[in-house]
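Thread: "does anyone have the structure for this chain?"

Original post by V.I.:
We have the sequence but no experimental structure in hand. Need at least a predicted one for the grant figures.
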Amino acid sequence: MTASVTALPLTAPQRPISVIMVSYMTDPALVEAIHAVLEDRDIHELIVVDNGNTESARARLAQFLVSRNRVRFLQGHGNIGFGRGCNYGASLATGHYLLFLNPDAIIGVGDARRLARGATGLKAPWITGGLLRDVDGAEQRGARRGALTPLSAAISFTPLHKLPMLTSIHREDQPLPAGPVPMETVSGAFLMTDRASFEQLGGFDENYFLHVEDIDICRRARQAGGDVYFVPDASVMHYGSTSRVPMMKIEREKLKGFIRYFSHYRKGPIGSAMSRVLTWLATPFMAAAILGRALFLSIRSGVLGR
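Reply from O.Q.:
Generated one for you, tokens below.
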């Protein structure tokens, strides 16, 4: 007769990680991103939510994934948007940790676990976000941001942030912290939570089709008494703007997301009136900044081929 052995519960750093990746016309970066995830044996599974890719890209992916049993490829649902796609993938994930990773973000071995370890001791519902770097290694905008309000938007999207005592919501110009630090907003390109926190928050708000859903879920986590932390030693190389969709269309969705966000969080008659005024003041500048960037990138791509 053999003695029975009681398995000890997994400690937080050992709990399985599920990566959810929502893709829409992101070939060829998608294959590189998938390969990078599968290089990390510490990642339990990868769920790719195919919101729409070319037939040639799908054929290459099918061939690439045929012998890889840690990948689940979800197709046939059409372009349901980023937030809804994330929720769909998360509903089928089996890991304790849920890591939402952009399909053009190249993760290194160990970075997923470092993001999970950054959550040690955080109050639920918690969220952690890592560092985004460009192909040259420089920090990208968006990985760490302050709270988005009509006032902070009015400052950030206008020349007001250049005035003394007024700062933009963006933090990439500040020195990197030595370790995990509280941060009002982290990027949905490289964002982690656990199953319990995600369910408590009700997942991403599916009313945002593309962009701003990360700002929204971070705000809801903080409002629910949870912690949102930036973890600088967990990083990805993020190409950015790899989707084969007109840049102007993507940026229009971003602008729509900002306007919806401000409308959703108005509170009280005075707050609503002030929010309306600030939103009205900030919207033209947001539109100019967001759509102007899209126009610049489109022209650069056409002229320089990049």
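V.I.: this helps a lot. Residues 1-9 have pLDDT under 50 and may be disordered.
O.Q.: and The chain has nine helices and eleven strands.
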